[in-house]
Amino acid sequence: MNSDQTLLSKRILSIDILRGLVMVIMALDHTRDFFHIGAMTADPLNPETTTGILFFTRWITHFCAPTFVFLSGLSAYLSAQRKTPAKASIFLLKRGLWLVFVEIILITLGLTFNPFYNFVILQVIWAIGWSMVLLALFSRISYKLVLVTGLLLVFGHNLFNLFPTPKDEITGLIVKVLFTAFGTVVPLGTNHLIGVFYAILPWTGIMFLGYATGKWFTKDFNTLIVAKP
Q: What's phi and psi for 46, nearest 5 deg?
């Protein structure tokens, strides 16, 4: 294999391996959803009705979304090293807004097959998108701000349980969308609903910590040789 037949691409193998492993686990869970006879009628985590293997295939997938979001932040940091701070921030901002658009317009349509969007579904892509928007703003200010904010959001999140939900309807809704969200349904008029199933800030905290961890991977990483097509 000579230099004309190879392409040297600097990759961090541990990150690629972890991302690939999580994709395999997620595929396993989605396979269970589509092919297991009780996927839509029974809870695979219910010890009274499940089996050991079925329980494990569902339980382990709880690590998928956090790992993906964490690696998104880490990759954002590594990508930013090849850009100016302004360009890196603009890239994250555009990418985040695009993901929000995709969740609202494309994914909702794919799930509901309703071109009138009577029920808009906001899930993990929505949360990742807004997390990228926030990362674009915070990373433009300072690395330390991203790190401290990430630590506060992740390790201080449950402290919000000590405070009652605001009684004001609008304020309470904002708090739910930002911090809890799961199952929050927002009516828009008489014919449209918005279902918010993923809160924004908990995932923002994970992405921020991933971004902060990126500094550990900027030196002495492996070189992967990829053959040219």
A: -80, 110
Domain count, the chain: 1
Is 227 part of any domain? Answer: no
DSSP 42-100: S-TT-TTT--HHHHHHHHGGGGHHHHHHHHHHHHHHHHHTTS-HHHHHHHHHHHHHHHH
Taking residues 172-192, report their average pLDDT.
88
SS3 for 185?
A: strand
pTM exceeds cut of 0.90: no
State in Å, rounded, how far the first CA of the chain is from the last one: 13
Is position 161 within any domain?
yes
- Residue 81 structure tokens: 């090293």
- The string of pLDDT tens digits covering residues 75-115 is 999 999 889 999 999 999 999 999 999 999 999 999 999 99
For residue 7, give both structure tokens. Answer: 């392409």
Is residue 224, in this structure, part of any structural domain at all? no
Q: 């317009």: which residue's tokens? A: 105
Residue 121 within any structural domain of the chain: yes
Choose among 208, 194, 186: nearest CA to 128. 208
Pairing relationship of beta strands 192-196 and 184-188 according to DSSP bridges: antiparallel
Dihedral sign from CA coordinates of 208, 86, 214, 18: positive
Distance CA 186, CA 119 (A): 10
Structural domain containing residue 63: 12-215
Tens digit of pLDDT for each residue in 4-61? 434 335 678 889 999 999 999 999 888 887 887 777 778 888 888 888 888 888 899 9
